[in-house]
Amino acid sequence: MREEVKDLLEAAMYKEVAAQATYAAAQKETDDPGARRLLKELAEDEGRHLQILKDIKESGMEVLQWDNGKLRNLMISEYLTGPDTLHNAGIQDVLLFAMKREQEAVEFYSRMMSALKTRQAKRLCEGLVHSELKHKLKLELMYDDLFYGED
What we know:
By secondary structure, this protein is mostly helical. The protein has helices at residues 3-26, 33-59, 76-79, 91-115, 119-147.
């Protein structure tokens, strides 16, 4: 595995660890049981993403198979503002916070893609962008169902 790809995997793993820690810590900062449950699920998701990245790094995969099919974008995180912290957050604030974090990850990997030189590293970034977009869509659909869904 090329050094550029290893460095990218390290950066991605760091981002997953940081996200997992944020969501785990925030579980103790809210009294809302729905928000606490969602934060627990988000922390577990980030842990699974971290394990996938570790597996890729450890196996030295040269060719990555990513499902990069077209995804919908509800654009909720682009139009709504959310909290900067999760202290005393309810479910709506947790969803907004998480959507914003996923959007930031998409933007980070998109910028990284333009700075990388090897085709393998660029493909890894494409896969990471798509993965973060899938996470964002999942959160946006949940938000849409909870706060805009038909009665």
